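Case study 2.
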Amino acid sequence: MARPRIALISNPKSTGNLAQLPRIRAFCDAHPDIFHYEVEHADQIGEAMRTIARICPAVLAINGGDGTVQAALTEIYNGGHFGNAAPPVAVLPSGKTNLIALDLGANGDPVEALQRLLDIAHADLAPHLVARELISLSGGESGIKPVVGMFLGGAGLADIMLYCRERVYPLGLPNGVSHFITAVAVILRQVFRLRASFLPPEPRPLSVSVRQRGAITGRFAFLFVTTLEKLLLASEVGTAGTGSLKFVAVEQNPVSMLRAFAASLGGKLGRTKLDGVHVEEADEIAIEGDESQVILDGETFRAGLGKPILLRSAASLSFVRIAA
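Prediction:
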């Protein structure tokens, strides 16, 4: 019997999978060259990888939100299950957040994306492969062992992401409506400076050190570090410096936020110096603050005073672009 071309890890508890997983199961049942492994908790991913490594698939596909992807990438990076020959990774569009899937060209219906991936896996993979650097996160209040991902939000951006997850998503509204409500709340809080218990909180002060230079300190409306090519507003960011980690921080004041927004719309973010807007590339970044939270691909971590979260470049992995 031929080995499966695709090994698929699914998280049935991912919000996007609640409706789509029966269709994905049916598709996999009809295609024996797909090996489907379901995990409900992050601590099951290690066993999934050990099993998948034994069948040597041509592609490892992940069906879940960014948090599921982050856990799987960390296991690939730390587990050593594939030695130096990890299969290329594909990400199906599912879950509430899909920044990684979008960056890799996967959007729309996950079953259609899986069919496209199956066609690619049976042909020449090479034209569809792209290398992506990863972010390694460690340290923080609890001495986090290295975990890897591709997009980190901090400061006010982390507060917004948590506000949407904890206060808006539980309302059970469609994603688009939830994101619109969150955007309105952000404008009321950060642009018009309104204060109310139903709005996101005031960002905590942070200190950020980039490339061992002098620290940038203050309150930031938005702060993110990423290796993804497609960022906010689908705009590419021009950065100063050299390194695989793209760092963007916008200070907490309406003028800086409007400058950054206009520059992003015009594709000029980071290409011209703007007061209150910090854009750089680096291989190492430290984030320190009093109980300040950051979110790496959907998972929350906490920095502390004297206990910074450390971000470093990690070895790149090969990914599959699913877009036609």
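The CA atoms of residues 142 and 302 lie 8 Å apart.
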